[in-house]
Amino acid sequence: MLQEFITELNSVRTNPSGYVSNLSAMLPNYRADNVYTDKENNTLIRTKEGKTAVDDAITFLKKQKALTPLTFSEEFSRSCKDLTDDTGPKGLTGNKLSDGTLAPNRLNRYGKWSGALSENIIYGNYSPKRALIAFLIDDGNPQRSQRLNIFNPKYNVIGVSCGDHKTFKKIWAVAFCTVFKPTNPNAPSPSQPHASAPTSSAAQSKSSSAAAAPTTTPQSSQPTQSTSSPSKPSNNNSNNNSNSSADQEEEPARASLEESKDGKEFMLRTTDLEVSGIEDLKVFKKRGEIHIIKTKRQDDSEISSDFRYSFPFEFNASTVIAEYDPKTGKVLIRIIKQATVAPGGEIDVGEFVLEKANGPQYEDKVTFDLDDAGDCVRMEIRGSRKWQENVRVVLKEEGYKILVESSHDEEEYDEAENEDVIKTITRREGVRLPMSIGDGRPIKIVRQDPSALELTLGKIVNKSTDDPEQDIPIPLHSV
Asked: Mean of the per-residue pLDDT values for the chain?
């Protein structure tokens, strides 16, 4: 089953326009009220956008350029299986394990990922092909982030898990990353379906060289689904973006986490919460999570939904700003970063001399890799195979950027002077990180060869001083 899904995914990734016919064939099965007739399972599915989302996917596929296929990783897939095995029997939601383990740490259990990272989750009685099509349509998600993850050129590796689900029958968990280095190459393949639970998360890294990426897990308290029948629309096939029917509790309020353009904040934006006004919303922090309580008033009763958002870093409630936009119905959560390097300043990590190198791992220039090693960033710097290089490593932009500066001397004939002259060639390359490093945390040289060296740079973890058991109110402002 997993291999069939991967084959389908690589088929659309390598020939997007060739997959259009699979989506076009679905269009006649949509009713005017956005209900889709699923002939495969003999059910009716209530969608949010109906044909509109399918047409949008078709237009996208016709324009999308072909990409290289993704490589399946058994170890990476085991991390997806851990999520479904743990949360399924318990009926839990969210991409956290029941012991509180967050997605970036879970996905590092059987190896180390680096570069960009994201995870697509979908629930419903989907076959492999229908699961992929649901990701491509991405119904109800204005950002179409699950579709974009499939066509992100930064991704080279894929992990997949499919299993039974207590309410939605099945769950598909699909993780993507740039590089994955397994720690257990002999791990068994998770080829069989297993018990699992609904989660939805798009954990995205803003830098292709970043060692970790902030992720959010929107989740509602207890999403339920009504029993489907050929005559009654249901949501038994759902991807977190579909609407709930009137007799169901609400689906998770989808949100995305990103870094502000100036790099000073993390921003979480929800979708439309569909409330009558700001008075129907309350925001607070508890146990490291942001809660948005939505209250619906119906006749003489009130129905409350608790949307919880988890973060892979600590923060104080005093650094959070919450804003409600009455025009869009969306809430923006802003978490102010804590500076580690003074604005405009820099920290010298060190200066090194790397000799001319030999070997297939070296290039004509200085290169480097970053990997997440838990509480630190592991950095390997490799010299050039053409020159002896002087290398300087610097932390800038409040500890959120690593700058590698390399220089070497070249001899060049100067026709005007009629003699050979020495010129210094300098090259600079910087990488933005989603976490801050340095400023008092250990910076160690763990290996230094004539042509390469390896550093560990301690992450700055902003320890929260908030009482984890208290509901700490966060004022919500209308904008």
From this structure: 77
| Element holding 296 (H helix, E strand) | strand 289-298
Q: Could you give the 3-state DSSP secondary structure of residue 64?
A: coil
Measure Cα distances from 470 to 307, 314, 363, 381, 466 in Å: 17, 16, 54, 45, 8
Number of residues that make up the chain: 479
- Please provide the DSSP assignment of 275-291 as one string: -SSGGGEEEEEETTEEE
407 compared with 372, residue with greater pLDDT: 407
Structure tokens at 200: 């939805």
Phi first, then psi, for residue 70 (nearest 5°) are -85, 150
**pLDDT surpassing 80 at residue 131:** yes
Residues 238 and 244: their CA atoms lie apart, in Å, by 9
The amino acid present at 4, given as its one-letter code, is E
More confident call, 299 vs 177? 177
DSSP three-state, residue 397:
helix
pLDDT digits (tens, 9 = 90+) for 143-183: 898 999 999 998 999 999 988 888 778 888 889 998 898 88
Query: Pick from 299, 274, 243, 315: which is nearest to 34 by CA?
Result: 243
Contact indicator for 43, 236 with CB cutoff of 8 Å:
yes
- Phi, psi at residue 364, to the nearest 5°? -80, 0
**pTM over cut 0.70:** no
Q: Are 80 and 159 in contact, with CB atoms under 8 Å apart?
A: yes
List strand residue ranges (DSSP E) for 299-439, in order.
301-309, 320-325, 330-336, 346-354, 367-372, 376-382, 389-396, 401-414, 419-432
User: DSSP strand E in 355-400: where?
Assistant: 367-372, 376-382, 389-396
Q: In what order do the strands lie in the sheet with 389-396?
A: 346-354, 389-396, 401-414, 419-432
In terms of Cα–Cα distance, which of 260, 278, 272, 267 is closest to 333? 267
pLDDT tens track for 243-292: 322 233 344 455 667 777 766 778 888 888 888 899 999 999 988 889 99
Q: Round to whole Å and give the CA distance between 104 and 288.
A: 16
Beta-bridged to residue 335, according to DSSP, are 266, 320
Asked if pLDDT for residue 113 goes beyond 90, the answer is no
